[in-house]
């Protein structure tokens, strides 16, 4: 049971064996048409982790997330959810186990915050089971958890970027999925709203014990918030593990072609990347 909101994560059809990853890609080849992004890629997401995928532009981060979300079918290999090939599962069943906050979300015109968050309950609706007291409670608790309850009657298109991101996150939470995927959740936000959204994600991970998988561009933010980091380059996983073990000057230069120093963040003790000054600038 979620101690913060009272919302229990949805149970799955088959409880995973201890130590078994609920979400994994096994020797997948991912491509768009003839363009291969990743070949024979294998990745397992640790349960109850806040996993962040980092890497340079066009390295395959969001493509991997799309495969995890069943939006892109591997040309070879398979993504597994709770031990089953995800493409073999009914869409509604997947939606009860795995939620997605896409990179760009567009709300219908004239929809209020409360109505948008309520759409997160769609996977739980049935022909003979329509809106219930539980649905009402979960929507209210999801809005409370993301600090948007006071916006319930506002139109989504009237909100700031940070407010909209929190509303979309509330919508994903209302699905009550134990796994949540976030594709660049801080895109187009100023630094204050980036921190606000990532602080919220970290709190939801910590208090609700959900498994979060996020794609981020900012390596320092990834190192600060992740419990598990996956570094990619050219469609391959270069390194993965705890940020303190993964983020080194050697790895940053290898992955991002960026000479740097890595020091300890004075606020969190996590790795902090300091780019090297250009030659002759001092």
Molecular structure report:
This protein is 30% helix and 25% strand. Helix 5 runs parallel beside helix 6. The longest helix is centred in the C-terminal third of the chain and has 18 residues.
Rg to the nearest angstrom? 19 Å
Quaternary state of the chains: single chain
The helix/strand class is alpha/beta
Helix segment tally: 9
What is the CATH class name?
Answer: Alpha Beta
Strand element count: 12
Distance between the termini: 55 Å
Total individual domains: 1
The CATH superfamily bears the name P-loop containing nucleotide triphosphate hydrolases
Widest β-sheet, arrangement of strands: 6-7-8-3-9-10
| Global shape | globular
Proportion of strand residues: 15-25%
Low-confidence regions: 1-14
Estimate the helix proportion, in percent: 25-40%
The biggest sheet, with number of strands, parallel, antiparallel or mixed sense and barrel status, is: 6 strands, mixed
Q: Let me know the average pLDDT.
A: 89
Element order: H for helix, E for strand = EEEHEEHEHHHEHEHEEHHEE
* Architecture per CATH nomenclature, i.e. the level-2 architecture: 3-Layer(aba) Sandwich
The fold-level CATH name is: Rossmann fold
